[in-house]
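Ticket 4471: requesting a sanity check on a complex prediction with zinc ion. Repro inputs:
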Amino acid sequence: MNLLNPFYTQVDFKNGTFEPYEKKSKHYLSDLQGFFYFNDSLQEELKKEDRLVYEVYAREVPLEEGHLLHCITKIYPGDVGGEFFMTKGHFHQKIENAELYLCTSGKGLLNMQGVNGESSYIEMTRGVWSYIPPGWAHRTINIDDNTPFVFISVWPADSGYNYDKVLEEGFNKIFVKKANKEGYRIIVGK
Ligand code: F6R
Ligand code: ZN
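Returned structure tokens:
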């Protein structure tokens, strides 16, 4: 067995980032084609501006069983036709792999959907540590109009991603802004 040297990461709770990181990815509205329920609104929005929706800072470990990937995700405030800014959402390719999300700041939702369309969600605020069991697709949503929603993820390094099933089937709960008010309401999607 080749031993990897132990290491640590410094979380910046104020800025919703950490250091060091080996990978940083930025996801714009144009990268989320097909993921928003209000697709017409997305196309309208894209004619105006391709806004930054979320960014992910990640540590690198071997993508092998036994290792744990970990990253921090920062979702900016915003919406597309009322549908809050969110991550794409995915099943793990290795569907039996679970994941942990710990919210470090902001206000969000963890929307989950089982393989047979079962639905569940958790409200995430600082300190809420959520368990995504095996078999659940997971998407996070920023429901605050002014502040980024930030959370840390830890998951088995051999999990992989399956975005296609989410693209094909969508999530059956869609979270949208309340008109002229704080908070969210749920509409039933596909
Ligand atoms: C990894 C995981 C998170 C997300 C990240 C971005 O398994 O669930 O680290 O990858 O929050 O979301 P997606 O990957 O859905 O764009
Ligand atoms: Zn995941």
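Notes from triage: Residues 33 and 128 are 30 Å apart (CA to CA). Leaving this open until the requester confirms.
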